[in-house]
């Protein structure tokens, strides 16, 4: 329920920002009030000190609602709320709204070093704000997660928001560039403005290289304006709002505009590597929980044989082995166990999705941006 209230609050905030932009202050007032109610309900279900943080966010939203009420009263605009809504249209896109349940680091196999990097960069400064300021350590800022496909970069970004217990605003390049051609800059501004209306929030840009390609790398007339708009929004990110955290994800970091990797923007780049042996074993275990397996199946042996496979590869590998037993169970009865032979059969017909050449390119980028 807590996650549902947070999602609803974010949806109402985006609508409120839209109505405020078109000077439909009555609509903005109602949406900010609705967001306030959901944030208060979220606070009821939280332990301390997160409860206090939720209440503070609710108070801020309520103040914004009162501001809209005053502006509506002072406005000389005679158009009604419904008329404005019909002419401008309610924002129907789910841009920026994370619909899935939040997750925690404990639900992600391996990546202990990466988790500790993020704790030092983000979580500890958020949790110990006064102590961090004493040592001139700033909460918030920007982190770019990069690495091969299928290693869990997006999942990790969601887990950061889950660890912090803050709203998660997500934007995908395909959403902006396909649905908002000509209005992409405006929607980017709305997203950041909605996040800033909260005391703390995570903004996650998926497929960063598609939104922020190197200058001159595309013939599109839209992309230069999109790049400029995003740079404007994130420039001086830490100074303007230290309760905001900017996260990005890419499979091709070498395609990103270098201006985005400067301090104050994505000032921290973190490589999400292929899973090591321990992580591969844990991924197998997580994907085989409650599956009826024969005694000859060894998770240690599976982990050894799957060297070079990504987390997504391993999940699919386990699924294929289980599918074989499932089909046999349908045909011959439900007593069929998944055996070591099933895994061996699938392994002979599988290969890693990420080539050594691709991995070498990530190492090269990592060394050049250390």
Task: Explain what you see.
The structure is a single chain. The protein is of the alpha/beta class and 370 residues long. It folds into three domains: 1-92; 93-273, P-loop containing nucleotide triphosphate hydrolases (Rossmann fold), CATH 3.40.50; 277-348, Helicase, Ruva Protein, domain 3. It is 56% helix and 8% strand. The protein contains 17 helices and five strands. It has helices spanning 2-21, 25-44, 50-74, 81-88, 112-127, 129-134, 153-164, 173-179, 184-196, 208-211, 223-234, 237-240, 277-287, 299-305, 311-332, 340-348, 356-368, and strands at 141-146, 168-172, 201-206, 244-250, 268-271. A five-stranded parallel beta sheet has the order 2-3-4-1-5, with helices on both faces. Helix 1 crosses helix 9 and helix 9 runs parallel beside helix 11 (223-234). The longest helix is centred in the first third of the chain and has 25 residues, at 50-74. The radius of gyration is 24 Å and the shape is globular. The two termini are 41 Å apart. Residues 76-94 have low confidence and may be disordered.
